[in-house]
Amino acid sequence: MSLSAARVEALFLESGALRAGHFALKSGRHGDRYVEKFQVLQFPRAVSELCAAFADRVRGPDGRPLVDLVVGPTTGGVILAFETARQLGLRGIFAEEVKDASGAARREFRRGFRVDPGSRVLLVDDILTTGGSLLAMLSPIEAAGAELVLAAVIVDRSGGATHVTSPVTGHSYPVEALWSLDLPTYEAGAATCPGCAAGLAVEAPGSSGTKAT
Question: What is the rounded distance in angstroms from the CA atom of residue 161 to the CA atom of residue 156?
């Protein structure tokens, strides 16, 4: 299916996933809009519509999938990988974040999940900001000897990334987004932040209850 950026925005607005206000971000900067992806991901019909657009991007002219497997990172990617895979008639699995003895984090397929060498993979995720989440997924995919056909995200906040490059192999993989969103951020303080200048109360949404993402 063809899903317009306007329709994606409407889904976020209808679910309350895109909010306006005065927000403290994890970076320490402030913003006047905030995206809470799980507000839209809680609605199966919205998820189904978004994932149908993902699935459509990896279907051939005959309607058959051009990939063998759909993967995503925890946590939002679990939901997206499952539903996209369901619509394609494939398996959908996820990679979890684990830490080694030094405390360094990496992504890993666990729980008996299998990624066959040579398998063609669709990587799905919710929001692309710095690209760190997608980059972390490349290592387990490449380590399995699989081929990443496409990385697809719902929202691109990166400023227009079209590829993600593996720091290990140097290989570049295509990235496609359903909706590109420019959310300006500001240094905290009345001299730089419109919300501070207006004296608006600062909200700190997010799963941690301290800072927004």
Answer: 8
